[in-house]
## 1
Amino acid sequence: MQRRQFLSLLSGIGMVYATRSFAATAPGGGMVTIIQFSDDGKPLGRATLAKVYKDAEWKKRLSPLAYHVTREQGTERAFSQPGHDRHEPGLYRCVCCDNALFDAATKYDSGTGWPSFWQPIAAENVREHEDRLFGMVRTEVRCTLCDAHLGHVFNDGPKPTGLRYCMNTVALRFVPKSK
Ligand code: FE
């Protein structure tokens, strides 16, 4: 295949996919159950809440890259975002809706240039489903509360779970542990 043909094929796939991902993030309504956490990482209990959809606010408030990653299933370039290799104690929340997603205690250096964790803060707070984009079968990870695309999970992580939650830095808001 000629390079130009290949590029035009890729952009065709991108357009189809953008349409599909828009549909996937349109307001679906409904209720979801998550575990709420305080900023210092303490569980506050289960809450059943209406799904969050604030597209106009997200367009205004998020950087173009954060919007693209979370609402259009984009991916930031590896090593490109300050904070991908942060190791301070704290909590990572969804940049769109503030749902608690990861505890910094489960973050490790995967060497990939993306923040990597071996488990979410609560299984209820993320949704995982199969993604077949570009002929690869991967497991996509989304925020339960607002459907933000966060990244993917792979089976090559460290103990104790053997999982690698490979996240986009721009999809997360870091809350440092207060001293
Ligand atoms: Fe969210």
## 2
Amino acid sequence: MSETGKRVRALDLKEKKKRGEKIPVLTAYDATMARLLERAGIEVLLVGDSLGMVVLGHETTLPVTLEAMVHHTAAVSRGASRALVIADMPFLTFQVGVSEAVRNAGRLIQEGGAAAVKIEGGAAMLDVAQRLVDIGIPVMGHLGLLPQSVHQLGGYRRQATLERDAEKLIADARALEAAGVFAIVLESIPAEVARVATAALAIPTIGIGAGPHCDGQVLVSYDALGLYDGAVPPFVKQYAQLGEEIVAAAKTYAQEVRDGRFPAPEQLSARNALP
Ligand code: KIV
């Protein structure tokens, strides 16, 4: 956790960038995972709207509702004692108008217990980002591949591969920084574009499929831990295969119940010994 044991704040991330300290971020959707990731020293937890795909069984993030995000953010906040909890603003909760965005971000902070929100988009979202920051809500930006724009983008494709798109991304990143965002996620862009953006900003960039030059990295925890059994993006490194461990453990349990080996007599006496 933070070296001082204090709660990590959005502004601490800029200090980490100044010190050249890389920032590992993982997504979390419930209290148990938040506690486990904190124990592993993860200081920044993103309640991503990837929730829709890896937990709720949707094909995209588009069906995720504000209610679902508030519910899961509140669970993560209960589990996290020191990590910075950032809640994604789901589709249509910040694009319709600034006052609606303020009300919805406010719910993620007030009811969800998040300390910051994340919004997808560049120039088109500046007024929203600016207003949220002005009223005291820390905002993380998100550029490059925007999963909420999957239909417009024609799929989950690498972005900013053409020079003019790369220039636009860097201009958007500068504009978001000027609007007051505290960090920017860069998703699925060439490493060189991420390098230039990272060098151009005083705030940290957090990459996902954006190469090694970003100030931090974020992965969807279910992908990185091998829990999600759907398609995993090629840039993901899987640090475990927990899905396979769950299948094996559940198989053993089922077999033991069928065979009458569980519960064993010692399990019964252990249970009877409980107060
Ligand atoms: O929803 C999410 O998990 C995200 C990360 C992939 C950055 O936005």
## 3
Amino acid sequence: MMTPSLMGVVNVTPDSFSDGGLFLDPEAAVAHGRELAQGGAEILDVGGESTRPGAEPVGEEEELRRVIPVIEGLRGAGAQISVDTSKAAVAAAALDAGAGIVNDVTALRGDREMGPVCAERGVTVVLMHMLGEPRTMQKDPRYDDVVTDVKAFLAERLEAAVAVGVDEARVWLDPGIGFGKTGTHNMELLRRLGELRELGRPLVIGTSRKSFLGKLDGSPADQRLGGTIASSILAAAEGADVLRVHDVAEMRQALTVATAILG
Ligand code: HH2
């Protein structure tokens, strides 16, 4: 098993589904990010807008106010910084402040300037699958075949990114676990990750604390570490390249053991 990189989640929001409000204060967010870097995160994913089911969108000014000081504070923390945003102006300011990766859950569909900004800056961009939008995405999501449909979507978004000048070698892809998917859809995607590998780009997987884990055993969002680790390790064994998690040190330990056993 190849050891994937760990992307630690730094949510600077009042309403994220598992840690909303905990790190809204920039100093608390920076301290948390530094702790994740020390715990073994190669990437810190800083986000100022919750994408949980039902979340309301955040204005550009407010999102900038949340994320920019935190990105500035995390420069030199020993990890690359990604910005979790779908707004081109936020991405541009974040890149100026020290981010090197744009993580766009809308896969360049949310803001028509996002593709050009990423192309011009020559940065890595994460394109994620989502069915619908956060406000409504969990209302009866349906697919013909979830893996085939997500794969076709990611291939199309990769092509769209390249068409506006993004270097294909700079694109990472993400099936968007929990974004317009039932538990069965999520588990099917994780089981058949090999099919998404055929797209030829690194795969980012975020199962951390998500509700499909809780549906299996009734655990609340802040008590899903075991489920997060099990699903992430299985994703790694199926070829995930980047694991986006809240609990970096525990995930690092699990990965160390798994790679030692599998070789
Ligand atoms: N999941 C969340 C947010 N951003 N980005 C990528 N690429 N992949 C994911 O799976 C992903 C993501 C949701 O998690 P979290 O940030 O903890 O919650 P919220 O959106 O409520 O802030």
## 4
Amino acid sequence: MSEHTVQPSVTVLGLGPMGRALAGAFLDAGVRTTVWNRTPGRDAELTGRGAVAASSPEEAVAASPLTVVCVVNYDASDAVLRQDAVTAALKGRTVVNLSADTPGRARDTDEWAGRHGIRYLDGAIMTPAPTIGTDDAVFLHSGPEELYREHRPVLAALGGGHTHLGEEIGRAAAYDVALLDVFWTAMAGYTHAIAVARAEGVTATELAPFAQGIAAILPPLFTEFAADIDAGTYSGDLNPITSAASTMDHIVHASEAHGIDASVMRVIEGQARRVIARGHGGDGFSRVVEVIAHR
Ligand code: NDP
């Protein structure tokens, strides 16, 4: 059998919603997929579709040249990968850790992998489980480019867009935490907005289309802000931060009049006020990035 006709194979460790989606996409693409999860029983649907169930993580990683780990965080991936038998079985093989955690944990895992002769790529998934295997999936990777290229054909089975962000191993996690920061602060703003609206007799459903209108303003603003911040101009020509701080104050008062916790907005208003106190009241909200970076 020529090298090109050998069926590619992968091991997936972790069968939460995301791990199951990854394993399912590998199976759909015809990749021989071995699976393992700490709690037994999560592999039933996958084995029904042809996945091989391993009885231990060491057996799982020994089954494939490439192991994809997708568990809740790096405490969990450490708990699996750093068992002696698993570490030994991984020697000379590749691990791609798609669990979410900090850049520091990615660097620590890379250092551990290097000490044990394990080839290591770090990664992050930026879209929900149902996108996996579709064009909408977004994967970020970092680590040795050659290693990434070697495994790229198998990873392509996961669908969507894959971006190799560079050799510095913490880079995918750096993007991940920054992008999750955008997501969670936006969702916190939305849930808070709904609480305020409901207190005024507006239902979440009534507010939703208008909230989507606000969300639609953001993408071009992100691009504008990025250029503004990278250039250090912090332009407030169209919306000076004095005006922005005034609207934040309205949100705080309207919330607290209904007994709604406004602590997040108070913090944001405080940051804007610090910008103004430093003599930058004519600048845009983008100037906050400097104030919070130098406490
Ligand atoms: P979870 O984040 O809830 O992770 C569940 C998985 O982690 C299960 O396989 C669970 O095993 C395992 N786990 C937890 N603690 C341990 C441990 N100490 N030892 C071994 N395994 C452990 O679910 P997801 O599958 O959704 O997420 C996995 C990763 O993917 C996370 O880092 C998440 O941030 C990321 N992600 C998820 C997205 C999604 O839409 N779900 C979107 C983008 C990223 P057990 O079954 O035994 O509890």
